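Notebook entry, structure prediction.
Reason for the run: the old model in the group folder had no record of what sequence produced it. Starting over properly, with the input documented here first.
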Amino acid sequence: MRARIIKKYFSIIFAVILGSTLCLGTVLLLLSSQYYIANKKTAMTESFSVIEQETNRKLRMGFLGDNELQRFYNQYSMVAKGDIFLADSEGRIVSSSVVGNKYSFGNVGKNSLQLFSEKPSYAFGNLDGLYDNDHHIIGEKINFGGENYYLFFCLPNYGQSEYVNEIMTVFNLAAVIVMA
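New structure, fully documented this time:
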């Protein structure tokens, strides 16, 4: 009788510990993912303000469609490891950080252009098929010379899964130690 009670007690305690570990793992996974996205958005917003200021300055100086604007985009893009481009109100790429003609296959879709207004906005997607996979995107509509343009700063979605995997590896190790 006593052995059955002890066995039942340890079974219940083990189930509670296992359930708690699973719940904590799920919460940790969600929190670390949200933390990663929040940090990425903050860094992108800060970078975007620099890109926007420099774009406006160069546009005022008459560098629209000139190599000077593309040269700035190229330099900043190499450091930020993302794409920067300026599109007209129809979604056609006017200037970009991409060397060559990567965007010759399409334009930014009208649906994507409607997401961005006069202040920087964040989105996650592929800009209506401009990219093959999803990107973190900050964009803003800017007015220059009576025409609307859209400035975009896009970062690929790499790194998040590696970040979450590292967090979960540490968590799994800790869970094994606690269970042992």
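Summary: The helical segments are 2-60, 67-80, 110-113, 160-179.
The old model has been moved to the deprecated folder.
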